[in-house]
Amino acid sequence: MVYVHCNKIKSKIIVPSDDGSRNIGEIRNKIFIKFNFQSSKHICYKHNAIGLDEVAFFDYILPTAQFIICHDDDKHITYKIRVAVFRSNAIFDDLGYGPQVFCPLKHWQLEHERQSQCQMQFSFGGETQW
């Protein structure tokens, strides 16, 4: 898919799951961003790793992207890794969802998302008036 924005042409590649039932992410500017990532559902505890569908990885991500990013909706952490590092540390397994490629968490960079700077002031003894 190609779209025009502010006189610049940018491309976006939608990455489908291996069975084609849904889209697992998109590639923009050589960065694959995984959709709807939740550590409680998507971290493989058997390998302590993040996994991707095998065909999606080899057919879309490996030839097109340089980085993989997963924004964790559960813990408000962003996991980042170079595609080459993911590939060189890959573990291949099928846990009942089709063939997948996993990369252990120890190879990922973690960035904690900043929480809003909103602060509340409490008064418990009349120290300050509201």
Write structural notes for this entry.
The protein is of the alpha+beta class. It has one domain. Helix content is 16%, strand content 43%. The protein is built from 3 helices and 11 strands. It has helices at residues 39-42, 54-64, 83-88; strands at 2-5, 8-16, 23-28, 31-34, 43-44, 49-53, 67-72, 77-82, 91-94, 99-104, 109-112. Strand 5 (43-44) and strand 6 form a beta hairpin. The longest helix is centred in the middle third of the chain and has 11 residues, at 54-64.
Roughly what fraction of the amino acids lie in strands? 35-45%
Tell me, briefly, the overall form. Answer: globular
Total beta-strand segments: 11
Question: How many structural domains in the coordinates?
Answer: 1
Summarize the structure.
The protein has 130 residues and is α+β, with helices and mostly antiparallel strands. Helix content is 16%, strand content 43%.
Keywords:
single chain, about 130 residues, 3 helices, alpha+beta, 11 strands, 4-stranded antiparallel sheet, 7-stranded mixed sheet
Give the SSE map.
Blueprint: E1 2-5, E2 8-16, E3 23-28, E4 31-34, H1 39-42, E5 43-44, E6 49-53, H2 54-64, E7 67-72, E8 77-82, H3 83-88, E9 91-94, E10 99-104, E11 109-112
Parallel strand pairs: 4-7
Antiparallel strand pairs: 1-2, 2-3, 3-4, 5-6, 6-10, 7-8, 8-11, 9-10
